Structures are given as C-alpha cells and as structure tokens.
Amino acid sequence: MSKECYYCGFRDPMPFTCKFCGNSYCYNHRLPESHNCPGLLEYKSKSSNSGIFHKRDYVVRRKYNPFLDSLNNIISAIKSNYSLTILILVIVSFFLQYIIPGYSYYLALSPYDIFSRPWTLITHIFLHSGPIHILFNMMFLFFFGPELERRIGGKKFLIVFFVSGIIAAIGYSLWSVFILQQHSTAVGASGALFGIFACLAVLAPDIVVYVYFIPMKITYALIFFALLDLLFINSSGDLVARSAHLSGVVAGLAFGKYLKNTGRYQRY
User: Fold this and answer.
1) Same domain as 230, residue 106
2) For 193-239, how does the pLDDT look when each residue is reduced to its tens digit (9 = 90+)?
3) Catalytic pick from 80, 176, 245, 247?
4) pLDDT tens profile 37-90
5) Which of 17, 53, 131, 141 is the least buried, fewest Cβ under 10 Å from its Cβ?
C-alpha cells in the first residue's frame, strides 16, 4: 500500500523504509542523505552498536511549496513506478499514431518482417488499434503492474514486461507464418501484460480479482483467460492476437516460477 513520504509528504505506491530512522520515504528521498537522517549520524557515532535506530522526531521536513510540491510529486511518481512510466509512454505513443504519418506502420509487428525490422518486437507494445484497446490494456497495467513491481522491484519488473512482450511477438509471428499462413500486423501490450499477470499469479496466488464482476483468485482468472484464448485461437475474423496472449502467459509463468524458487521477491 502507498505511504506518505515522511520528508516531503508524497504518497508513494512503493515506499522505502529507512533502516536508520524507521520512517517511510519516496523514491527521491529514500537515501539517508536525502532526508537528513538523524539515525545515520547516530549510527556512525555508535558504530560499535549494530542496532536499528528509530528517531522519528528529529527529521527536519522540507518546507512546502504548492506548485513545486505538485511537480515534485508527479516526477517522484513517474521515477518510482515503472508501471506508470510505461503507461504514460503508451498514451503518448497512442496520440503520435494520429499525428505522425507512417508511425504505426513503421513500428507495428509484421510476422514476415521481424528479421528486417527486429525493433518491432518491442515497439509494437506501445501501439494500439483504438481507444477501447488502449483503455482496457492500460487499466490492466494500472491495476496489476504496480502489484508485481512492488514485489519484485522495478528492474525485474521491466525484464518480465519486455521479455514477455518479445516472446509474445515471436509466438504470434510463428503462429501466423506456419499455422495460419497469413500476413496480419499486430499491435498492443497484451502479450507483455499477460506475462505480468501470469508472473503475479505464481508469486501471489491468493490475490482476488474480478472477472466480469465475479470475484475469483488470480490463478483461476489466469486459467480462465488462457482457456478462452485456446478455445478461440483459430477463430476466423478474430482480431485478437490470442497466440501472443498465450506466449506471454508462458513467459510470465516461467519468470514467476524462477523468482519463487529463488525467493527473490517480497511477500505481502
């Protein structure tokens, strides 16, 4: 859950707890030097004592400036939350699709052209076919991205997101070329998002989500969506890249299994 930074007041969705003074801080003020930590000074003066200091009353808070604080809060939120950063980039890219001629064509995934245009394995993630498409994908990212990110950290989150997106693109390309034998371009972050969803289902299987207003555990929701994609994967006229969804699920499950076996994640 988000907590208010003890120094600047920003509510960070993934706060950091200082081991010297015990207070919670945002990304910008997470280091002891950034919030004038008194516990750090006491620790240095008593280096022989290995205990943790909790001096909540001695941190000198920064004075508030409404405009600068609002600007700083926005910057802090973006810097401390990669999920939000990706969401903003996708929205910006969506508007660029309607402004720059040829933008979508140059960045969309084309199964027969991945060797001549390998960058599209990533860039297709930031394109969407319309308002409804981007709305549902970004809602998905907004709710599940931070949940995984605060468990595995920002860097691992980016790896899971982009590798799942790349594997989803490869899976879609192979399915289109060798099974469907059709040349249909693909856009959207769905494959990467299903990787996030599957990884989260492995690490936090007891999370309850709502599927068509029906509450169920995230593991059952994942099974439901996977079965739905398998059932309609060869449907004629279906514009959903279901092979990309399933490929993303496989990548997410592999990441989740690895992280769970190594224990490199936070349990909530």
Assistant:
1) yes
2) 999 999 999 999 999 999 989 999 999 999 999 999 999 988 755 57
3) 245
4) 877 766 666 654 444 444 444 555 555 566 666 666 666 666 668 999 999 999
5) 131
pLDDT digits (tens, 9 = 90+) for 124-172: 999 999 999 999 999 999 999 999 998 998 999 999 999 999 999 999 9
* Marked catalytic residue, from 76, 80, 190, 247: 190
Residue 233 tokens read as 């994967």
What mean pLDDT, rounded, does the chain reach? 85
> Would you call 190 a catalytic residue per the annotation?
yes
Same domain, 92 and 67: no
- C-alpha–C-alpha distance, residues 156 and 195, integer Å: 12
Q: CA–CA distance from 45 to each of 19, 27, 49, 59 (Å)? A: 16, 26, 9, 17
According to DSSP, the residues that pair with 212 across neighbouring strands are none
**Amino acid occupying residue 139:** M
Clarify whether residues 107 and 223 are in a common domain. Answer: yes
CB within 8 Å of 21: residues ≥ 6 apart: 32, 35, 37, 38, 39, 40, 53, 54, 55, 56, 58, 59
Collapse the DSSP code of 226 into the 3-class scheme (helix H, G, I; strand E, B; otherwise coil) and give the result. Answer: helix
**Any domain includes 70:** yes
**106: Cβ contacts below 8 Å, ≥ 6 apart:** 117
Count: domains in the chain: 2
Tokens at 116, concatenated: 């001549």
40 lies in which domain range? 3-75
